[in-house]
Design brief:
By secondary structure, this protein is α/β, with parallel strands linked by helices. The chain contains 10 helices and 12 strands. The strands form 3 sheets. Strands 5-1-2-6-7-8-9-10 form an 8-stranded mixed β-sheet. Strands 3-4 form a two-stranded antiparallel ribbon. The chain has a two-stranded antiparallel sheet with strand order 11-12. Helix 3 links the parallel strand 6 and strand 7. Helix 2 crosses helix 3 and helix 3 runs parallel beside helix 4.
């Protein structure tokens, strides 16, 4: 019998939807986002993360979201009710890096799956095959192992050896390949963060590599958080990110491949589709919505409600689509990062 952790962090938006606290939301999360609780910092050294052992920022934050602490049993009960009321469709257990984390995730996943039939995702560091199988047996249906960086050089600089972190590039890919074998193609996710110093070509190439592995790449925009190592680095230009979102849509939908696209000085200049096709894709609005597990919309994880909205947590408005169309179809090339 696994010991259930007594406490769990819940993203503030999820806490409001679950009725754990009061507040107003411009966009309600459709997934309940949880974060394993422990005293002190994560053992990893990710330069962009406020949970990192190197961070001097707030320990109750992940990206720009606050994660208050609640009793675990109460949270699980609220998840059951919210799922039955069709307020949420998924729960995502996000994990810090500490010795007993796999036991904690497995206990949470098993208890949640016993309580309701809600879909369960886990986002964690690379694990052994045995531990991945353990999470699958506990009820996790999807697993996410964040690469974050799209090149080995950037990876080493922001979360690997150069910053004193425990992670290694090939170790992440080994875990992703084994996760695909255990959970199945399309049931494994990774995170790719735009704005860490990569070129558009490097980013799009990594999207294709992930898709070919059977891994779904979820897009994030780098967000500077006070107290982190990269706090002074700016967010990426929004037009750069919009181009990556279109490329992501084309590749993940099987419409085009990286090899079909054109790049100039490392930057994406041609999607491999006609302007008419591009406009039709833009009008759908789907490429610019939050990417991730089914039912994941992560409201304002990367951005302030006042904008710019990198990942739109709902169907884009006509005005938003018109602005995006102007940038991608009529605007000048401003893709430098």
């Amino acid at each position: 019998m696994l010991n259930l952790p007594e406490k769990i962090r819940v993203s503030i938006g999820s806490a409001i939807v679950l009725g754990l606290t009061e507040g107003r939301l411009d966009a309600e999360p459709t997934t309940a986002y949880l974060l394993t609780y422990k005293k002190g910092r994560c053992q990893a050294s990710c330069a962009f993360c406020p949970q990192s052992r190197l961070s001097q920022g707030r320990a109750d934050m992940l990206s720009r979201i606050v994660w208050p602490v609640f009793p675990t049993e109460e949270v699980i009960h609220r998840i059951k009710d919210a799922f039955q009321q069709k307020k949420i469709v998924r729960v995502c257990i996000q994990a810090l890096n500490y010795p007993s984390v796999v036991q904690d995730i497995a206990a949470l996943a098993r208890r949640i799956s016993e309580s309701s039939e809600i879909a369960i995702s886990v986002s964690c560091q690379p694990l052994s095959r045995e531990d991945l199988e353990r999470l699958a047996d506990a009820g996790a249906q999807r697993i996410g192992i964040p690469l974050d960086a799209v090149t080995e050089e950037i990876f080493n600089r922001v979360k690997g050896a150069e910053i004193g972190g425990p992670y290694r590039w090939e170790g992440h890919f080994k875990a992703l390949r084994e996760a695909v074998e255990i959970f199945g193609r399309g049931n494994v996710t990774t995170h790719l963060i735009a704005g860490l110093g990569e070129t558009g070509e490097e980013f799009v190439k990594m999207i294709q590599i992930c898709v070919d592995l059977g891994v779904y790449p979820a897009l994030f925009a780098f967000t500077p958080i006070p107290g982190t190592v990269l706090s002074s680095r700016p967010s990426p230009p929004i037009d750069y990110y919009r181009r990556l979102q279109v490329a992501h849509y084309l590749i993940t939908k099987g419409i085009r491949r990286y090899e079909d696209m054109a790049f100039k000085n490392g930057q994406l200049v041609d999607f491999g589709v006609s302007k008419d096709e591009l406009r039709k894709i833009i009008m759908k609005g789907e490429p610019f919505m939050t990417s991730g597990c089914p039912g994941c919309n992560r409201p304002y994880y990367n951005e302030r409600p006042s904008g710019p909205l990198y990942n739109i947590p709902r169907r884009p408005t006509r005005i938003e689509i018109a602005d995006i169309e102007k940038v991608l179809c009529d605007g000048k090339d401003k893709t430098t990062n």
